[in-house]
Amino acid sequence: GRGMSGFSPQGLGNLAWSYAKQAQLGADVNGSKVGSTGRLAVYETSCLDIGESLIQRLFAGIAEGAMSAGLHRYKPQDLSNTCWAFATLGLLHTEFFDQVSNEVRERLSSSTNLNSNFKAQEMANLVWSFATLNHPSGGMLYSFTPYAVQMCKGKGKRTYDESSISKFFKRQEVANMAWSCAVLEEYPKELMPLIYTALFGKNQSGNPDELKRLYDDDGIQKQTVMTMFYVQMALDMEAPDLSLTLPDNFPQGWKCDSNGSPTQRRSNSHKVDTSMLQLTTSRLQQDISDLFMDIGFDHVLEHVISTDELERDYGVSLSSENQEFLSLDIANLEQKIGIEVDGPGHFVNVINGEKEVNYEGGALKTSRGAMGWEFTANSQQQVNGPTALKHRLMEHLGWSVGHIPYFEW
User: Fold this and answer.
1) Taking CA 392 as the corner, what is the angle to CA 391 and CA 394, rounded to the nearest 5 degrees?
2) pLDDT digits (tens, 9 = 90+) for 209-231
3) Is the distance from CB of 124 to CB of 178 less than 8 angstroms?
4) Hey, what's the torsion of the CAs at 37, 41, 43, 45, to 10 degrees?
5) Of 187, 282, 312, 301, whose CA–CA distance to 243 is shortest?
6) ω into residue 188 within 30 of 0, thus cis?
7) Using 50, 70 and 90 to split pLDDT, how confident is the model at 275?
8) Interatomic CA distance for residues 229 and 303, integer angstroms
9) Residue 257 pLDDT more than 70?
10) How far apart are alpha carbons 59 and 248 in whole angstroms?
């Protein structure tokens, strides 16, 4: 066959995007059949479709084909689609991502950087991909900042506001960039105020109804509320000089309810959903807990930290209403020792070509009528961005956190 060298940049980007999108849609449609949710469901669906070994070999070939052809031939959309696909499937080709970072920064540093034609979605997807895979961006966020600021000002304007920003960014794109900044621990001083203005209005005092109108949406989604708790924690602990805060009434008045309609006013009822977590105790987690009990390590399962506790014990103010959004699988409360039992959804697979040619792949599994994938550990793995960010924040709170990967137990 012609191999990857016969594909155009758009062709390779579309090929990668199609496999990732199919897995994402398949996980959404067949969630009950797969038996897992979220990121892990997408990973498992991609493996059930064509096999773990084959999907990794395919994406290693896509990365090597792109580098061989030269990334200078790639349009911003092609770069964005390809990186998004890798991140969605939890696959990292380090040399490819390093070259993408170099290519993007080179384009933005040229004298024609304001004509580089990166759309907001392309910017957001690129930085989200690096953050999700927990791979350093090489300062790409800083390179994007002048371009983003200029695009958000609009023609003939000296500054930006939420109205001008909404003409370039969608609200979810801005939230993804905020989360990416926190994961990558990069907080450009010109970009972060723009992000907070986009989400909450100037000086974080915008009107939620007006922002809904500008963005033509129903408010901030539940997952984005949780995202911004993480981002604000990171800013308070790692970039306090930026003096950015969430609105005083956040998330009350900003978020959508479960039906997608905005929750504008506190109900007279005291039945408030205070948990943003979906906690389950895996069999592996229970086995490890039992062993710790046998050796005398005192602990609790699924220790939850709420926003009220953060404010009371750590001086971190995040919410106008108590919300549970941080948890540890196993926790010794007296000594502040946490143990995280990390399953496949906490990792990305590093697929750097020839070094992994002996990879065998996992196998189909079924449990209680649900399908899944029994992942193996023959490939190189590293923790993903969400796991790395949570670990960093817990350490800021004074916890010593250890990790037990599924493939080491």
Assistant:
1) 65
2) 999 999 999 999 888 999 999 99
3) no
4) -170
5) 187
6) no
7) low
8) 18
9) no
10) 45
Within 8 A by CB and 6+ apart from 111, the residues are none
Helix (H, G, I), strand (E, B) or coil at 9: helix
Alpha helices in 36-161 (DSSP H): 38-50, 52-69, 76-88, 94-109, 120-132, 140-153
Strand, helix or coil at 86?
helix
Cα–Cα nearest to 197, from 232, 156, 163: 163
User: Mean pLDDT over residues 174-178, rounded?
Assistant: 97
Strand pairing report for 347-350 and 337-342 = unpaired
pLDDT above 70 covers what percent of the chain? 83
Question: How does 341-377 read in b/e, with b if 16+ C-beta sit within 10 Å?
Answer: bbbbbbbbbbbbeeebeebebbeeeeeeeebbbebee
Give the number of other CB atoms < 10 A from CB of residue 382.
Answer: 16
**Which of 86-95, 270-279, 365-374, 377-386: highest mean pLDDT?**
86-95
Residues 6 or more apart from 69 whose CB is under 8 A from it? 5, 9, 12
Q: How many residues does the chain have?
A: 409
pLDDT band at 360 (very low <50, low <70, confident <90, very high): low
| Sequential DSSP letters for 16-49 | HHHHHHHHHHHHHHTHHHH---HHHHHHHHHHHH
Token duo for residue 277? 């977590």
Q: Which residue has the tokens 């199919």?
A: 22
| Residue 306 phi, psi (nearest 5) | -100, 170
Partners of 400 in beta bridges: 337
Average pLDDT over residues 85-100: 96
Instruction: Give dist(CA 179, CA 168) in Å, integer.
Output: 18
Q: Which of 372, 385, 387 is nearest to 47 (CA)?
A: 372
Give 134 or 28, the one with higher predicted confidence: 134
Beta bridge partners of 382: 348
Contacts of residue 337, defined as CB under 8 A and 6 or more positions apart, other chains included, come to: 331, 399, 400, 401, 402
Identify which of 55, 67, 70 has the alpha carbon closest to the alpha carbon of residue 97: 67
Burial of residue 409 (number of CB atoms within 10 Å: 0-12, 13-18, 19+): exposed
Q: How far apart are the two ends of the chain, measured CA to CA in Å?
A: 42
Q: 28, 39 in Cβ contact below 8 A?
A: no
Q: Are the beta carbons of 162 and 211 closer than 8 angstroms?
A: yes
Closest CA to 330 of 296, 308, 297, 295: 297
Residue 103 CA to residue 196 CA, distance in Å, equals 28
